[in-house]
Each structure stands twice: as C-alpha cells, then as structure tokens.
Amino acid sequence: MAVNATPESSPPWVLDFADGDRSMADLLGGKGANLAEMTRLGLPVPHGFIVTTAACREYLRHGSEPPGLTALVDAHLARLERDSGRRLGDPADPLLVSVRSGGRFSMPGMMETVLDVGVTDDTVPGLARRGGDRFAWDCYRRLVQMYGRTVLGVDGALFEHELAAARATLQVSHDGELDALTLRALVASFRRILQREVGEDLPQDPREQLRRAVLAVFSSWNVPRARFYRRQEGIPDDLGTAVNVVEMVYGNTGPRSGSGVCFTRDPASGELGAYGDYLPNAQGEDVVNGSRATIPLAQLAQLDPAAYTALTGHLRTLEEHYRDLCDVEFTIEDGTLWVLQTRVGKRTAAAAFRIACALVDEGLIDLDEALRRVDGHQLSRLLHPQLGDTSGHDLLATGLPASPGAGVGEVALDHETAARWAREGRDVVLVRQETSPDDLPGIVAARAVVTARGGLTSHAAVVARGMGRPCVVGAADLTIDLETRTVTTLAGTTLAEGDTVSVDGTSGRVHLGRVPVQPSAVATRLAGGATDNGTDPVSDGVLRLLAHADARRRVGVRANAETLPDALAARQYGAEGIGLFRTEHTLLGERRELVERLVLDRERDDALRQIGELARADLVQVLEVMDGLPVVVRLLDPPLHEFLPDLTALAVEVAVNDATGVEDDEAQARLAAVRRWHESNPMLGLRGVRLLAVLPELVDVQARAVAEAALDLRARGLDPRPEVMVPLVAESAELVLVRARVEAVLAAVAAERRTTLRVPVGVMVELPRAALTSGRLAAVADFFSFGTNDLTQTTWGMSRDDAETGFLRTYREQGLLASDPFSTLDVDGVGRLVSLAVREGRRTRPDLGLGACGEHGGDPDSVRFFVAAGLDYVSCSPPRVPVARLEAGRAEVLEPAAGGAWADTR
Amino acid sequence: MAVNATPESSPPWVLDFADGDRSMADLLGGKGANLAEMTRLGLPVPHGFIVTTAACREYLRHGSEPPGLTALVDAHLARLERDSGRRLGDPADPLLVSVRSGGRFSMPGMMETVLDVGVTDDTVPGLARRGGDRFAWDCYRRLVQMYGRTVLGVDGALFEHELAAARATLQVSHDGELDALTLRALVASFRRILQREVGEDLPQDPREQLRRAVLAVFSSWNVPRARFYRRQEGIPDDLGTAVNVVEMVYGNTGPRSGSGVCFTRDPASGELGAYGDYLPNAQGEDVVNGSRATIPLAQLAQLDPAAYTALTGHLRTLEEHYRDLCDVEFTIEDGTLWVLQTRVGKRTAAAAFRIACALVDEGLIDLDEALRRVDGHQLSRLLHPQLGDTSGHDLLATGLPASPGAGVGEVALDHETAARWAREGRDVVLVRQETSPDDLPGIVAARAVVTARGGLTSHAAVVARGMGRPCVVGAADLTIDLETRTVTTLAGTTLAEGDTVSVDGTSGRVHLGRVPVQPSAVATRLAGGATDNGTDPVSDGVLRLLAHADARRRVGVRANAETLPDALAARQYGAEGIGLFRTEHTLLGERRELVERLVLDRERDDALRQIGELARADLVQVLEVMDGLPVVVRLLDPPLHEFLPDLTALAVEVAVNDATGVEDDEAQARLAAVRRWHESNPMLGLRGVRLLAVLPELVDVQARAVAEAALDLRARGLDPRPEVMVPLVAESAELVLVRARVEAVLAAVAAERRTTLRVPVGVMVELPRAALTSGRLAAVADFFSFGTNDLTQTTWGMSRDDAETGFLRTYREQGLLASDPFSTLDVDGVGRLVSLAVREGRRTRPDLGLGACGEHGGDPDSVRFFVAAGLDYVSCSPPRVPVARLEAGRAEVLEPAAGGAWADTR
Questions:
Q1: CA B247 → CA B210, B342, B797, distances in Å?
Q2: Does domain B384-518 have CATH number 3.40.190.10?
Q3: Which of B439, B481, B574, B579 could disulfide-link to B558, CB 3.0 to 4.6 Å?
Q4: Rounded to the nearest 5°, which phi and psi values hold at B724?
Q5: Model's pTM, two decimal places?
Q6: Contact at 8 Å (CB) between A689 and A767?
Q7: Cβ-count burial of B897 within 10 angstroms (0-12 exposed, 13-18 middle, 19+ buried)?
Q8: In whole angstroms, what is the distance from residue B501 CA to residue B512 CA?
C-alpha cells in the first residue's frame, strides 16, 4: 500500500513532516503543522510523521482502531527508520519514538503522551551503548510508567509511590539521582504492578507499543479534564487530536546534553530578545513540570556557545517567518541541537500590545494586522487594577511573575477547596506546590495563583496567563503542608488555610493580608494621566492600536452613566455620548421615600416636585460634561417594589409589634400598601412603561426635567443633546402613549421659555415582543436601543440573579451552556432577535437610530456581533469603553466570515 | 360635474342606492349596502344616497371637509329630489332627510344621527300640511335638538331639562303628549340655548344643515364610546363610517302610521316565523330606545292587514335572498309601508346553531356554510351553566329574556359602580331603568344586566346578546331610585345596591339571592347525558355541526387533564388524547411536603419512593381511560418555591416565636432552607428542566412512574401510549441531558420486566429561545408542544398574575391592548415564534410532532391560528374540547385568507 493512501480518498490518516505545512493545522494539529513547517524551513527537527485528526475522528466515531491504520503507520515508520538510520526494536541501536497528542488548539497538559516507545528487554543493551546503563534503564522505567498509566489506565500514584520509596532508600531527593540498578529494579517492580492491576505486561513488540500508544492518545481527547478545558476555552468537542510520532532525542545523556523552552521575545513584558529556561542534562518534561530549578537561557551561551548561536539563529528565522512571537522547545543531545516544537507563543496582554506595535515598527506586519493580534479581553486585563501600597503587609515570598495583575483572597491549598469557597462567594488564592492539569478548576475559581515550584513556562504559568489570572510561580520560600493545611515561609511565618494574602502577578510578590488595589498604568494613561516614568511601551501600544481602531471603526461607542464622576470617566475613556442614563439613580438611597410617597399618596405633589428637581440637577451635570454629544435618558425602569420597603421585613416588624403589644399604625399602613403592590415576579410586572402608564405623572416630571435641564444649558451657550428612551415596551401603543405625553411636556416647557426643543424619543428593545414587532415599533420610534440584559432574561426565561444562585452552577458543571448568555451575547437566540429587529426596524424607517446598552456592549465578542448586526453604536460602563472601541475597530479588520454569517443567516 | 365623479378617480365619495349592492359594505357601510341591495330587490325603500367611507376617511385624515364633496352631495341631492318629488327647502312640500351613520361593522347606538334635516322657519307651514301643526313643530324641535347636540356639541341635558319642564307644566308623562304650541315654544327655547352655548343658530339654509350634519356624523366615528366599543369588538379604528342621506318617512303622522323592528326568525331561540315589536303612531327611535311599551308584531295583522301581509312577504324575500336571519326596521306612513333598514341579524348562540341547521334543511345553505355561520365563542356560551333550582329564592321580576345564560351578583345601579366593583373582584349585576351606549363599560363588567324598560331590540338587549352577557329587559315591576340607591318591586320588596340577585337570561326571571347554577343542556348532551324532553333542536344543531367539523378538520383535539374525572370528561367531550398531563398534580395539597423533604434532605429516599408511587397511581388511571390514545406527561414544571412554605409567613412565625420566647428549632430550620431557595422572580428561576437538572432524582422517579404505569397496563392487555415532555427548555443540551436520563430509566424498567418500551420524548416550547433555536431542538426532540401561556409571559415579559392586578386594567382602559394576549394568542409576537418554530422544527425533522397545550388551545381565534400554523393537534381543558373541535373544523371551511396570511408572512 502506498504511503499516504488511506482507505477513503481524503483526508489522509498519516502524513510525514516533509509533506505538510502550517496551513494544515486542522488535519495535523497545531504541533504537527508547525513541525512540518520547521522541517520545510530546514530547521533541525527530529524525523517523524503525524497520525492525523481525521484518523482520530474516525477512531472516536467507531470506538475502535480504523481498519488499515496500522498498515499506514507501518509504511510511514519504515520511512522514518530509513531517514533516521535507526530501526524500531533493533537490539544494536534501537529507534525510540515519542507519541504525543496535538490538536488544532493548544490544550497544554490536558491530553496524554507516551515517550521512549521502542524500549524492550531486547533493546536495553543497544540503548545503553547510546547513553549508558542508567540512561537505558531510565528510558525503560519511563516507558513502563507512561504506558501503564496512559495505555493501560493504571493509577499513576502506584508508580510514584515506588519511586518515592526508592528515593528514600537511597536518600536522594529526585529521580535523576537514582542509579541504574535501582532503575532496573523499578522496571521489574512497575511491570509487576501492571500484571497485578490489569493482568497485562508491557508488550515486547515495539510496534504493538506504538499502535496502542497512538490509540491511547486518541482516547485521551475525551478525558474529563480535557473536556473541561475545552468548555472553558470554547474549543469544539468534535475536532479530535492528531498524534505526532517522532524520533526520540535525549537531553539527559550527559553534561553536553540538556533541554530548554524559550521565546523569541519576553512573553510577559513583550521586550525583544530570546528568553527562556534551560536545564542541563535533562529532558523537556523536567523543564516544563518545574520539578528542577532551571537556569536562564542566556547562560547556555557559556555552556555551549555553538548550540546557543544555532538556537538564536533559528529563533530569528522563526520570528521572521511567522512574523510573531514564537515559543520553542529544544533539546541538545551530546552537543547536537534539535528543535522539538514551535508555535506562535502565548503572551500577556501587555506583551500582546507591545509586540504587535514592535512588529509594525520592524516592518513585519501592518497596523491592521497588529489590531488583529490584540483583543478586548487582553485590553480589559490591562485595565484591571494592580496592588497598591504594600507597606505594613509582610512580604511572604517572591517568585516568578508569571501572569500580571493583582489578586487578593484567602489561601486555599487544593483545587476542590478553592472551587468550593469561590462558589460560596469568597475570594480565593490558590497556593500549590506545583500545579497539574487537574488543578484547572481551582485556577478558574481563584483570584490569583501561587506555586512554590516551576518556571515561567510551567503549567500554572501558562494556564493562568491565558486566563488573565494573576500568577506567581517558583515561590520557593513557601513550604506547603497538606497535613496541617498550613503554608510556612523561610522566615518562619506560618499561614493557615483561609488566611488572606495579596498577590502581585506583575512583580512576583506575595504579601500577607489585604493590600489595597490601584488602577493600572494603562487605565491611568487612557484617562489622560501621566505614567510614573513617562515611557511605558505597553500604554504606548494600547494608545496606538486604540487610535487605529478608532480610525477603522464605523460604530460609535457610548457609555452608560448617570453621575458626574462616571460621565467624566466616560469622556476620558473616549465615549462619544451617553447611551444609557438611568433616571432611577435619582431615586436611590434615602430618596426612595419619594416614590413611596407617590404610591402611598402622601404629599404626592411635593414628592413629584422634588423628584423633578433632583432629576433636573443630575441631568444638568451629565449633559454639561457631554456637551454636544447625545445623552439617552431612559425613563424610570425598575419594578416599583424596588422603591418600597421589603414585604417580609415589614411583615415581621408588624407581627412582632403585634405580639409584643407595640402600636405602630404607620407600619401597619405601609404593610398594607406594600402588600397591595407586591408582585410575585416583579421583573415581569409593574415596571418600565407599565409603571409610566399607571403613574403618568412620572412621565411628566421626567420629561420636564429633561426639557428644563436642556434649556438651562442652552441658555448658558451649551449644546445639550438629550434623547428620551422608553423602557420595557412590548407594543407600539405603549410608546405612542408615553411619547405623546413626553412631547406635550417638552412643547409646554419650550413654550414657557419662548423657544423650541427637539428631543428624539426612542424605545429600549428589551422584550422579545418588541423585537418581533419591530417593524411597527419603528414607525413611532426615533431610535432603538437594545437592552440585552433584559432581552436575555426574557428570551431565556431566566433571571440572572436567581440563575446564579439556583442552577447556573449546575449548568456550568454539566457543560449545558457553552458560555454565560449574560456575559457574552447569545447569538443564536438573543442575537437573532437583535438582527431581526435591526432588519425590520430599518425596513420601516431607514434612518432609525440603533444602539445597544446592555452589559454586552462592553464584551469583546458581543461588540463584534453588534457591529456585524449593523448597529450605529454600543454603550457600556465607562471602564469598558476602550475595550468596546478596540473591538469595534477589530470587527472591521477581522475576516468578515463571523459577522457575515451572523448577518446572513439570521 | 357628473354624478359619481370624485376628485380622485376611485373609490367614489357619493353613491346612489340604485348604484350599489351588498358586496360594497366596505365603501357604503353595512346599512347603506343593504339599503342599496333592497332597492335592487324592489323593496319599498325611501330614496337616498350614501356619502361613502372613502369620503369619511378623507375627512378624518385632513380634519376638514374634502374639497368637492359639497358639489357631489348637491348633485346626488338633485336626483333624490327628482325621484322623491319633493325639494329640500320647498315651502310648499319640503323634502326632509335623515343623516345616519353606518360603518362596515354594526356599532349600535355608538355614533350620531341627525333626523328631519330640512326643517326651517320657511318650511314649517308646508310640513304642517303633511302631518299637522304638532307634527311639523315636533320635527322642528327634534332637528334643533339633534343638530344642537350632534353638530354643535351642546350638552343634551339642557334640552332634556326644558322638555321635562314642559311635561311638568302640562302634566303629561311623555313627549308625544306635548301640543303644537308647546313644541313651537320649545323650538324657540332650544334655539336660544344654541345661541347661548355656542353662539350659533340652526342654519336656515337646509343644504347647510345637511352639509354640517354629514360632517358631524363623520366626526362621531371618534367619540370615546365608539372607540371603546370598537376595542371591545376588535373593529379596526381606521375604517371610518359612511353616511346615509335618506328621504324621511314618518310613523308618527297618525293612527294609520307606526314603526317597528322585526326579525325573519326568533333571534333568541332560532324558531321560524316573523318576530318583532311594533309601536303605532311612533318613529323608529321610540321602538329602539324602549321608552314606550311595544306590541308584538303579530298584532299588526289586525291593525293593518295589508301592511302586515306586505311586510311578511318582504321578510320572506329577504331571508331567501340573504339565506340567513335578517332583521328589519320599517315604518308605515299613512298606510304606506317603508322598509328602512335590514341586515343579517344578530342572534343568540342557541339560535345560531338552530338557524344554521334549519337553513341546511331548507336547502338554502350547505353544511360547510352552516359551519361558517356558527363559532366557538357561541358554542362556548351554550356550554355555560344555567340557573338551577330557584326554590327559596323570591322571584323579584320577570322581563324579556334578552340574552340567555345565568348570572349572579351584587346589584349595581350605574355603570361606574358596576365597573368599580368588578375591578375589586366582585360579581356584579347591572340594574338600570334603561341602558344607553354610555352604559357599555358597566355591561362589560357585569355578570348579568337587567333593565326595567325596553324591548328585545333595545340597546341593552342587543349589546348584551353580542357579548354573551345574560340579560333581562323590560322588567317593568322594578322601580329604581338613584337617590336612595334602592330597587323596589311591585310586590314591595326593596333591595339595596349591593344585595345579591340571580338573573336567568333564558327565562327572563330575576331572583333574590344566590341561586345555584346548573350546567347547560348542550353540555349535558355533549357529555352523553339525555336532555330533559329528548327533543332539543339547539343541542341537535350543535351535535350535527360538531360532527361536520370533525369530518372536516385535519387537526386533532386533546385535553389537558391529570385526574380521573377530567380524563373521563375529556373523552366524553371528544378528546383524542391528553396533550398535557401535569405531574405536579401528584404533589399538591398535603403531598407538597414530599418535595420539601427532598429539598431539605429529610428521609429523602422515602420521599422519592412515595412521589414515584403516587405518580404511578395517577398515571395508571389516566392512561387506562385514554387507552390507545396518546398521553403527554409533562415532567415537574412549577417553581420549586411553590412546594415550599411561604417565606413571609414563615419569617413572621419565627419572629413572633422569638419575640414571645417560644422555641421552635424546626421552624427556624425550615425558614433557613426556604430563604436559601427563595427567588426574587421564581417564574424566571429554578423550575422546569432546571429543577430537573439540579434534582435529577426527580427525572428518574417520574420516568420510572411512566414506565411502570405503562407496563402495568400493558400486562392487563391495554394499549397505553405515554409520551414524556420536558418543560422550560431553552437550549438543546438541557433536553439531551434529561432525555438521556429518561431513556436510561425506561430501558432499565423495561429490562426488569424483560420487555421493551418506546416512549417519545419531546419538549415544551415555552421560551422564546426554544422557538428561536427550534431547528437544533428538533434534532433531539420527538415532538414540540407549544406552552403558549409561558411563551406569552416571556415574549411580553409580563406575568399574568402581576399584570392583572397591576396594569392590565389601565391598559384596557387606555386601549393599549387590542386583546388580552393571555386569552387570545398574540399572533404578531407569540404567533410569529410559533410559526417560526413549526417551520424550522419541521425543516430539521419532517415527522416532528407538533401541538399546543396552553390555554389558547381552547380559544376559538387561537385554534384557527394553530391550524393555519400547521400544528397536528391542540389541547385544552376538557370543557373547551368541543369549542376546539368546532373551530378546528371551521378553520378548514373558512376562507383561507386569515390563516394563509399568517402562514405566509411569518
């Protein structure tokens, strides 16, 4: 059978490195595609081939090995043997191969790997000739251990227990110190474990080892932690993984060997220059799992100048070829450099902006491409606050600054505790010796992560960085005792689990207690303040790319604000108006009693007069700040009961009064009134336009406040541009009613002042029925603003508050929701209504104004949807305005596929 | 300018009777079209012409007389003068005309009329020659009065006050007894009122009278009571009214004159034979307003045999021509019969079924046409209960049985009181001297209506019949005193307002106190019971037309039921299965504590076991009754809190215990648990599939109950057909989860019994998101059932309970809602989602089962929508099953326009 032929015509099930390239990541996985690309670039990549994702999907579909796959693998193996000059199972000089997972999207540590495939009783002597007895038996030990755990499903702790016993016997601290005899005994002992646990031994046929290792990697696609990770990262479950079968090279064959992981630039700061960790006489796993202390890459220049020069040359080649930050794994075997893996490297948000701009300056990419390389999530992370003044808070430890930002919380020592406490609403800092993929739920739950061991490329560091969790790794001063549930520092301080610490992921410092938190430099700079030293390449990058986004975007960005400080912040952050001024702000706090008086009919006219004056004062402030820009004033929206006393509390008060003989007619009367207005589902009750219909004086008083505020400012020479928005409209007649009242008041106020006043009146589209009848609504509305919070609530029939405490956790745990529809707009349901309303509203009124003012207005993915849907602007809380600006710009330079698909099929 | 030409090419603004026919009702109004039709039939209709609805719409659009209209009216007037042989304003023999409203749909008494147009100072003498001085001055008096009120907007009470003073002076009891001199003085007095009130006199140019009367009738289209009536009846606001300008003929010119109103059959019972009221020497208004006692039509045969013979001949002509019950107004002037108006007559529900079948038997129509002539609202009315045994309840009065059915409530003496009490939830009987169009809100609000004066064609009778309100008119024994707010009977009983009476609209009797109520004969007959005398033409008609509907309909009718009595009733009423078996029924009453134990973790397993056993017992009963028919079992749906104690009550109990030193740890613990599960909006919270995800044992126990119940019955040789429905699904993953659990349990139970069991699993589509993602849902659901109650709730963001107490009343009063979306399906919003889900669900799965199980399943209009939308079945409460059957059949024989429009544009 010819190489590359598959039982079905396409796609191929097996492909050599030399026959692929990086455009084939869907089929080859990211790792395989990049190995193929490097092979084509002439980099020293070990020989190998890829069993493709197509073969994996076939396997997962049928649950058994696809017929013909073994023959294909054998054919490619023959070529590998020819190229490498070694044969699998050759007693004289055996070929050993690694069998590694590698899907379309990186899932660090989530799936399985089997190394050293090809060691058998027969090949040990030949292997010993390559690297010594100890090396040969260590390879055998590793193979039995990994094969046992991964292929046969034996509990890994059984092996670890034997290893620990051996270390104790020899009084050594790590496995690298175990001698050949001990390793040989461990191989025998591990093989007995296999026999005992599953009644099988390691196959002595190397091809059988290979065959079963490949299938085991396929199967690991569906282990729970991998599924959990995919849900977290939004990776589809049906992609499958490729398997890379690669000639083993060894960094642990002596002092002229070693392994390392490096980046073409600093992935934390974005600074230029090769950057990484190196571990002499070690395999790559030893670097990644953080079990031994690495040395900085720069020291390799002294240890092995030739290898260092070759490596830095390769790094330059890769960065120029990929036109981006790359990360690279390499091994040096007896002075020969092998590049084992590369990919476009993960980076911190700060590095993303700095690198993107640096690549523009270096002429490798243009500004559009730079804009594609950053995103709103990253910007949002940069806008997160940082630890403030730490004086008075003992420095507990300093580790590596693995993921920037600040996190404060109670120490939790395992991921179950961290997740449980987080569910209880507590802020948690996960503190671990080192992390494994099993710790993922704890990292998700924590405000920050600290590990005592590991480097910047350790599991904890990579995962935390990807999620924007502040993270400090390698804080070696910390000793964690899971028996007593304490953490002890070198200085002798002992923390109990539950004590509070503050983590600075930017500096790598961990402090005792609750350190106050400060805004980020980027946020300060965006707000127009100077940075500490005046030169901050990250803030520079953010401002530059924001400016480019502003130049590109067609969609406006407004802010949701109703106070003077928020309005000022909104302008500083670049808001082009207010998309949502909530009039209920006027009636918060002690002022609630004004509404109560209105409802209970107590000095009603005076209450109305006061409401009007307060509203007018609030409006004047915000309209003045937003001089010349639109300010959308939403008429009173919340359920009436939010302004009334709590029924249960009041009922208890009255009952206790009764029981204890206290007379309180006032409380009795209030209770009666609250009962009369009580609703079993206030979200679906008397609120928004309904409350305005029942208490139309509230329309009048608010409309008058708008008119008077605007005319006051106009008299002072300003250009106020208020708009009035009617909430919770389900039927156009509601809008007609309120609009008529608003316009009558506006006309009356204008007439009083012998002038005219034109104020657009629009509708907040936040009920499915409004969207479904948008063609009619548009006939009587000047604009629509999508209130996607409430629209999500009714489209899903789900109250956010109740859902969070009630069942959303269960849903997340069971993977029932791909994402939280309250955070990221549900395109299929809510988004469909938005698109429909845009289309049908514009059909009725081509000049209809269209905006979004729910919290989704500041969510990066949702912003891109709103752009694709054709809105004129989005509106969000002031600190998210830069995020919305960036994403609105990115929407214009990203491939139109996503937006186009939304726009076409909805 | 030529007659019939209008400034715009079409439609015409003015048309002669001779040039129209009854197909032109949109343009000519119903009254005008029928006058034209009768003119073509050769019936003795007075000469006249019609100013069309097109002219009215033009007038309403611009708010002023359309240019050119006066010239057109003049041209047609010239022809009228030629045909009638009299001229307007001719001092010798003046033509007088009536100017009457007449829209597309009958709105009895809602709009204005001006009679006797053409009387001036100059024409009084000529008029006196026709009918005497008294007649002439009475015409003048009427014209000034109507013109003043209608055209000039003068308060009618001012004229009534003068009339009352004149009657008092002359010591006579009604206006017909006023002499010529007095009437002449009244004309002068009325004209002074005009001058005083509006500074205008009655124009002495008859053409100016005519011109302004026409415009005043146009304007009356928009008086509040007309708008209110249109909202009640669902008549569009933009149709406008036509105006009939007709030569006056007089029934009050002496003993050989008179006026009457009659029907071709009895509109109450449907019995064959001319039937009506006649009033000698009177105008038509005197008959209709009930101010004088009429005589039965049959007595006309003695008074004026020739006129009677002519009239009955005309009635036969009309019924054969219209192939339906007609009502007719006529006047006899000095022995000459004039037919003034006809239309297809309103009738009781009972008469509708009887007449439709009689016309089939007479060969005038076929069964399809008969089915078109009845509707579900009428059938529903016939299924309403009737007054039961009245012994022990004094008979207060007997009047005319104007609208059948029974109503019990507190006496209210004006419409404001009736409406106010009804809003407070009280049952009200409106008792009035006579009713006017202003009383409409009171009639709407009342359980029954009683008037002391008036005939079967009086306002109260017509309106109440149209609405299905039981009504007794002409109960002359009652004296109503609005001063003391009492009603006194001839026998001397005095009732205070607020006392309870029972009204039998079928027999015309009013009883003191609360009479028990019995089911209707039709309902009894439908349920398979015999009627009292064995021959009941109404029940016969209902059964016959239901049978025809069953033969015609393609859509199945199921019932919502979960108890044995309901299931039995459902089968008797013809249900073809159960569309909604609510499992929560099992957990009502004392059994609620089972759920509480589940939640509070108290003897949990035992609680689950009991829930399962109870559910199984309920299911066995219903599946047995429905042997061979589908039974859709909905898994537990209500919010969890409905099974837990009330938070406020429990909080009060605990607080009072605390305050009084009582120890109750049990209550404390329950309060803590209830607080933990408390939700601010339970409708949007932990319910339906969400509760099932959180407490999956509830899925298992219910699935097991279904499986065991079905297999128990199968073991007894029956053919149980349960289906399982999952409520409140928003996302297909929810259904996948529950479906897997259900199917695992079904398979396990089947395996235990060494058999197999196939149970379809479907989804209740009751959230907008389910409808919007129905294409995906259908991939994992065997059927959809639309839960339109909840779908309405979320689409509108409106809880029915909260809305009813909170704002729906305001909405109705202000006309914000054309109809209650919880009663009649909101086609534009909710219906659009239903149509979308049908289309996209079937696209995914062509054999997808489709049903509706909300309360709309028994609403006539909604049933026709569901048929048009393409559902397989509707399901409703058992008593509404016949209504759904009838409407499902009618949907097939009605013009496809309505359904087709829905299906196409959604």
A1: 12, 16, 56
A2: no
A3: B579
A4: -110, 130
A5: 0.79
A6: no
A7: exposed
A8: 5
Set of chain B residues whose Cβ sits within 8 Å of the Cβ of A817: 731, 733
State both tokens at B12. Answer: 């015409």
A115 CB-contact burial (10 Å; exposed 0-12 / middle 13-18 / buried 19+): buried
Q: Which residue has the higher pLDDT, A566 or A738?
A: A738
CATH code, B553-591+603-635+694-903:
3.20.20.60
Tens digit of each residue's pLDDT (9 = 90 or more) over A19-73: 999 999 999 999 999 999 999 999 999 999 999 999 999 999 888 999 999 999 9
Q: What is the DSSP secondary structure assignment for residue B147, as one 8-state letter?
A: I
Which sign, positive or negative, has the C-alpha torsion A8, A10, A13, A15?
A: positive
Instruction: Count the neighbouring beta carbons within 10 Å of the beta carbon of residue B736.
Output: 16
Q: Do B772 and A832 touch (CB under 8 A)?
A: yes
For residues B726 and B738, the answer to whether their CB atoms sit within 8 Å is yes
Structure tokens at B505: 């609209």
Residue in chain B lying closest to A828 (CA) = B773
User: CB neighbours of A19 closer than 8 A, spacing ≥ 6?
Assistant: A4, A36
ipTM for the complex shown: 0.78
Question: Which residues neighbour A744 within 8 Å (Cβ) at sequence distance 6 or greater?
Answer: none
The one catalytic residue in B459, B548, B641, B856 is B459
Q: Which residues of A touch B772 (CB under 8 A)?
A: 795, 828-829, 832-833
- 3-state SS, residue B155: coil
Domain B14-247, CATH among 3.90.1150.10, 3.30.1490.20, 3.40.50.360, 3.40.30.10: 3.30.1490.20
CATH superfamily of B258-344: ATP-grasp fold, B domain (3.30.470.20)
Tokens encoding B49? 């012409």
Asked, as a colleague might, if the bond just before B11 is cis with ω within 30 of 0, I would say yes
CA distances from residue B784 to B634, B723, B740, B776, B836 in whole angstroms, order as listed = 12, 11, 17, 12, 12
Which residue among B659, B660, B693 places its CB closest to the CB of A807?
B693
The residues, ordered by sequence, that sit 6+ positions from B589 with a Cβ below 8 Å of its Cβ are none
Tokens representing B719 are 């053919």
Tokens 């343009």 correspond to B27
Cβ–Cβ gap A693/B810 under 8 Å: yes
* Residue B904 confidence (pLDDT): 30
A433 CB neighbour count, 10 Å cutoff: 14
> Residues 674..733 of A with a Cβ closer than 8 Å to B: which?
677, 679-686, 690-691, 693-694, 728, 730-731, 733
The tokens describing A689, both together, are 């336009």
- For an interface test with B, which of A794, A817, A906 has the most B Cβ atoms less than 10 Å from its Cβ? A794
Q: What residue spans of A681-807 are helical by DSSP H? A: 689-694, 697-715, 732-752, 768-772, 774-777, 788-796, 800-806
Residues near A863 by Cβ (< 8 Å), separated by ≥ 6? A376, A856, A857, A874, A883, A884, A887, A888, A891
Q: Which residue of B has its CA nearest to A646?
A: B648
Cβ contact, residue pair A693, B656, below 8 Å: no
A385-444 residues touching B, CB cutoff 8 A: none
Q: Where are the domains of chain A?
A: 14-247, 258-344, 384-518, 553-591+603-635+694-903
Residues shown for chain B: 906
Of the candidates A652, A684, A807, the beta carbon closest to that of B797 is on: A684
Read off the pLDDT of residues A222-234 as tens digits, 9 standing for 90 and up: 988 888 788 777 7
Quickly list DSSP for B499-525: -EEEEETTTTEEEES---EE--HHHHH
Q: How many contacts does A have with B, using Cβ atoms within 8 A?
A: 200
pLDDT tens digits for range A289-308: 666 788 999 999 999 999 99
